[in-house]
Specification:
Chain A: It holds the Pfam family ETF. The complex is a heterodimer of chains A (about 300) and B (about 260). Chain A has about 300 residues and is α/β, with parallel strands linked by helices. Chain A is built from eight helices and 18 strands. Helices cover about 25% and strands about 30% of the residues of chain A. In chain A, the strands form four sheets. In chain A, strands 7-11-6-1-4-5-12 form a seven-stranded parallel beta sheet, with helices on both faces. Chain A has a five-stranded parallel beta sheet with strand order 15-14-16-17-18. In chain A, strands 8-9-10 form a three-stranded antiparallel beta sheet, with no helix packed on it. With about 260 residues, chain B is an alpha/beta fold. Chain B has helices spanning about 35-50, 70-80, 95-110, 130-140, 190-200, 240-255; strands spanning about 1-5, 10, 35, 60-65, 85-90, 115-120, 140-150, 155-160, 165-175, 175-180, 205, 220-225, 235. The chains are: A alpha/beta (about 300), B alpha/beta (about 260).
Chain lengths: ~300, ~260
């Protein structure tokens, strides 16, 4: 069995998550090769074959060309699996590669399963085992689902080139907005999610944070709704935090949010839904309405 | 100008999910269905584009699924779409993302849409494949995970959301496919007059057999709850009692309360 791992480069550097691809291949017990659109400085610590295309020539985001570069590596390696991380790069490129190869694609794989691959569904609340029909199979892996593994060694480089141009023009990156409180330094964070109900209820969350001497964070829907500033957002697209105590109020626990807070020392989740995915990482899950429970907790703590 | 918006109807995610009789997807009993949240941003962006262009473009919605998806179509029409296509498929839940994309692409092929909006993923299956696959099948350029959208003179300029709050700006020529991320805009609530107007808008029904010519590349073999990682305490019951027990645990297990 053979896997072609698609590494990911951002601003000239290999993304750390690319090493999770090796962790996955090891669990699969498969031979590996990597394809990377990057540069010499972004090569992985890996002693196997690396098909390297120059990001200076092809761009870090040029899906039409990246698709064909991956295809060129597939033609040389003839892998059983072409594996991406389920990132903004992977979920963008993988379906294009699958279309080109006429291949089945399984998105956001979290585990190997008998006869297929396990993946989350229903907003991470449930799991589905999916069996691909045909070969090669294109996979994207959920971040953090497989351990990062640095195989070590010096890569055996194989140059990779294709002709032509892409139809999308990449104009550049825009840095993250960093306004307001630096939650990465907070020892206690009380975060508000959609379950808070409406903007007018937010003072209830702020009161609890105040009584505890902590800061207020938010999940994505709260920021998207304009209830709180983007700077308060905890998660993949916001801040990654690791306070001693994290209290998630009315947050269901989308994977992007969990990725940003699961390293917290102690996690309390308050949610009406006992099956909410936040329960998977919470040390304590309080099954209750936020607007009933939080004021009661604040009142008791204030005494 | 012609705009297509792909809309999926999904269950409320607060629901309790149970496997269906075959054990491969959820049973629909007791579930309340609504428009996939990402698709609401797609509909809104189409309507904003129409408004920007002085009402000239025609917006078509397409939804694949059983009879119940008409409710999702009606909401999209009430938000401002002009007409809709319901690809009737009582077994759409058994189709894989590739087949769903092929159904939509087969419809769109003869229609020459200038911009196609989809959500970046659905809340239930969440493959994030369908939008990109439609683009590939039609030979359109595509940008995914879009949180900013501008259109001028046949050129689409978008901001893609990347990790860590970083965004990437990308320009592409129409015809193009754009997949919409949460936060792209503020989806509007349909007003009562618009809900009334929507009732008169045309909904074309096409049986799925007319558009689907592809076999599935994925088979859903099992649907179940995730294995519980365990260790976590669950507090249920009376609120005052929950408060006391939580404070007890925090005093016991953390150094933050004393």
């Amino acid at each position: 069995m053979k896997t072609l791992l698609v590494g990911e480069c951002r601003e000239g550097k290999l993304l750390e998550s690319s090493y999770e691809l090796f962790g996955f291949a090891a669990q699969l017990g498969a031979e590996t090769a990597m394809v990377l659109i990057g540069n010499q400085g972004a090569l992985p610590g890996y002693g196997g074959a690396v098909y390297l295309a120059d990001a200076g020539k092809y761009g870090e985001y040029n899906p039409d060309l990246h698709k064909r570069l991956v295809q060129a590596a597939v033609e040389r390696e003839k892998p059983d699996y072409v594996v991406f991380m389920h990132t903004s790069y992977g979920w963008d490129l993988a379906p294009r590669v699958a279309a080109l190869l006429q291949a089945p694609q399984v998105s956001e794989v979290v585990a190997l399963a008998e006869g297929g691959f396990e993946r989350p569904c229903c907003s991470q609340k449930m799991r589905q085992v999916v069996q691909p029909v045909g070969s090669p199979v294109v996979l994207t892996l959920q971040g953090g689902a497989f351990p990062a593994l640095v195989p070590g060694g010096a890569p055996q480089q194989q140059p990779l080139d294709v002709d032509g141009e892409g139809r999308t023009e990449f104009l550049g990156y825009e840095a993250a907005v960093r306004k307001g409180v630096d939650l990465t330094r907070a020892e206690i964070i009380v975060s508000a999610g959609r379950g808070v109900g409406k903007k007018e209820n937010l003072p209830v969350i702020a009161e609890l944070a105040k009584v505890l001497g902590g800061e207020v964070g938010a999940s994505r829907p709260v920021v998207d709704s304009g209830w709180m500033e983007a700077g308060a957002q905890v998660g993949v697209t916001g801040q990654t935090v690791s306070p001693k105590l994290y209290i998630a109020c009315g947050i269901s626990g989308a994977i992007q949010h969990l990725a940003g807070m699961k390293k917290s020392g102690f996690i309390v989740a308050i949610n009406k839904d006992k099956d909410a995915p936040i329960g998977e990482v919470a040390d304590v899950l309080v099954v209750a309405d936020v607007m009933q429970f939080v004021p009661a907790l604040t009142a008791k703590l204030a005494k | 100008m012609k705009i297509l918006v792909c809309v999926k109807q999904v269950p409320d995610m607060e629901s309790r999910f149970r496997p269906d009789a075959a054990g491969v997807w959820y049973a629909e009993t007791d579930l309340a269905f609504r428009v996939n949240e990402y698709d609401e941003y797609a509909i809104e962006q189409a309507v904003l584009l129409k408004e920007q262009l002085g009402g000239e473009p025609e917006i078509t919605l397409i939804s694949v699924g059983p009879d119940r998806v008409v409710e999702a179509i009606k909401k999209g029409l009430a938000m401002g779409a002009d007409r809709a296509v319901h690809v009737q498929d009582p077994a759409s839940h058994l189709k894989d993302p590739f087949q769903i994309a092929s159904i939509i692409a087969a419809y769109a092929k003869g229609e020459a849409f200038d911009v196609i909006f989809t959500g970046m993923q659905s809340l239930d299956r969440g493959s994030s494949q369908v939008g990109v696959a439609i683009a590939e099948m039609l030979g359109y350029p595509c940008a995914t995970t879009v949180v900013g959208f501008e259109y001028a003179d046949g050129t689409v300029t978008v901001k893609r959301e990347l990790e860590g709050g970083v965004k990437g700006t990308v320009r592409l020529k129409s015809p193009a496919v754009v997949t919409c991320q949460l936060g792209l805009n503020q989806p509007r609530y349909p007003t009562l007059p618009n809900i009334m107007k929507a009732k008169k808008k045309e909904v074309t029904v096409i049986p799925v057999e007319q558009l689907l010519k592809q076999d599935a590349r994925l088979v859903s073999a099992q649907f179940r709850a995730p294995a519980k990682k365990g260790g976590g305490v669950v507090l249920e019951g009376d609120v005052a009692d929950q408060v006391d027990r939580l404070i007890g645990i925090l005093k016991d297990k953390t150094a933050v309360l004393r």
